[in-house]
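User: I'm curious whether this sequence folds into something compact or stays loose and floppy. Could you predict its structure so I can see for myself?
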Amino acid sequence: MMSTFQDLIATLPTELVVTNELAKEAFEMPRLPQAQCIVLPLLRETIAPILIRNNDPEMTTDMQVAGANRIRMIASKTKGVERRRGAQVLRFLGLGGYAPANKAYRPSNKAMSEVFDLNTLVFGDSAKGSEKAIYPVHAAVLYSDALSVEPINGRIDSVFRQGGVYEDGGTYDIEHQGTSSNIFTTYSVMPGTRLVQTLVLTGNRLTIEAFNHLLLSIGLASAYGGATAVTGTNIKTVIAGIYWGSLERPINAPSQILPHLDSRATTDELTDKLAELFQTEYPLGITVAEVQAYVADLTQKLDREEPSLLRQYGHSAQQAAELFDAWFGNSANNKSASRKRARATQGVGDQ
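Assistant: Here's the prediction. I'll summarize afterward.
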């Protein structure tokens, strides 16, 4: 049965922290997970050459699935990019992104809310403490690997590369009086390759504001990596609807999706087929068109710094701060920092 975003919103929690009244002394703690599974099937299409490599620097990562050898893009290659986009959004709004990616550190006199943020809740993170402790946060959204709809044969292009380029732009090594011998061939995935991936959220852990942050992070990401840097868009992502029920279904695994897909189909046909598969498996869902319109509207609101969106982000930033301070405990200094952050977010979006 197809639903609306309002139906989805009605199933999401409004609070991230609760009070445990069963303990000897009541204390705040994160809400415990409950039965719920939300899945976003994605169709990612390469629109420029992209490197998808394993430990062998020349070869493309592949995997035998559904009777064919397919390109395999591991989860971290997409999740890492979208996580960084999410941190950039929070920095743009002045509401997070306090630490660089994978470099979070908590001094002993800091609250966790001064290290972790809304992006941490959505994508997960860990921080080192000054007392050598490790503070882990499990991601609310779980990424599968992305597997190509097309077999790998015919989708790979060789790229001639010259290493050891010097400051003058040439390959002549003045120190050794010779031309660099770092000449090699690597392989890129050709434009027009489609890959299937799923994003799964279990446990009823995200508020609508946190869910919107996930959608914005996906919608704003474009460059998914290369040898050392990618400066242009190389992947276009289509969210083939949003579907949910009480528990996870096997169709969430791309290996279970691929037998139903025809590599000769157009991207629109593949998107429609994905929507059909998930509508059959899950009792509730939102159409592709409605999801696309919703994400486009969120993006426009962010570009315009619309007060309603800024207020939502300010509220969610405070909720995330309270969550992490409750999760990892508060000292007197931490409580003071949490109150300070609460005051800082109250005026966000007030115009």
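Summary: The radius of gyration is 23 Å. Residues 19 and 28 are 4 Å apart (CA to CA).
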